[in-house]
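Forum: Protein Structure Q&A
Topic: Joint prediction for protein chains with partners

I've read a bunch of threads here and the consensus seems to be that you should model interacting components together rather than docking separate models afterwards. I'd like to see that in practice. Below is the full input, 330 residues plus whatever partners are listed. Could one of the regulars post the assembled result?
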Amino acid sequence: MSESGPLPTTLPPVVDEIAHLAFLLGTWRGGGTGDFPTIDPFSYGEEIVFEHVGDAFLLLSQRSWLAADDAPLHFERGFLRPGADGAVELTLAHPLGLVEVSEGTVSGTELDLASTWIGRTSTGDDVTQLMRRLRVDGDVLSYELDMTTERTPRTRHLQAELRRT
Amino acid sequence: MSESGPLPTTLPPVVDEIAHLAFLLGTWRGGGTGDFPTIDPFSYGEEIVFEHVGDAFLLLSQRSWLAADDAPLHFERGFLRPGADGAVELTLAHPLGLVEVSEGTVSGTELDLASTWIGRTSTGDDVTQLMRRLRVDGDVLSYELDMTTERTPRTRHLQAELRRT
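Posted by a regular:
Agreed with the consensus. Here's the joint model:
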């Protein structure tokens, strides 16, 4: 059996199924601001990477750090793929004891996603809904994220702007 | 705000909360065999990476490829963290339109995890349970994974052996 692995030295072509999501591909770096009724407002730096492997999905890795002291803040890892009838499906794991399924639409270079399932571990966070809006304009990616928890109604939690590196 | 990012040039220390999981840290490469009543048996190459960022969780990235032609096979991305009372919690995203929460125990250098929650997208796979056993013996990591779907009762799906690189 092969144990050398398929890490390509040149990227495989983007398959047709995700051509309409190819505007996301790349490494994006920037920063944003966060707020929520239960915490103090904060500023953060962030890197988001969208990759593909020649298959009908994108791999998504996000990491952020507190602007104040560069301490690790949040991490998200998952996959974005086309669903039925032009829909987009996101499967995402969080280190807070959360997993997320979100679905929505892509319109041009704008993604609009709402969580349809949030699962948690026994000690996981009490998030109950996540709403994401993300757009790319040239080399700028910006997004807003609204969050609902068991104790707090839907509130704008994050907004950020990143540039393609 | 800082946009330079915290990518450490030296790894931060492993925090006490995950010291008992530190045996997993590193990059593991090897291969295994897969089978299931609904598919033909197959052999695969695999890389599993467990990282940490100085916080109380591990980051997990898995990728595998068909031994026959090095075609990308499967990817998993997620987080492993300590739960309550010595438990271990796994949050994982799959590109098949699946997210997984698994919980279990660590005993020495053996992990035993059973899914407690599997969520799926509208077009996601019909997996209903995943049972994982993973152990490290020196520089060898081996695991078995049993899978249950809506159409197929619990069956050994994967077994593999990897070496620390």
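Chain B touches chain A through 54 residues (CB under 8 Å).
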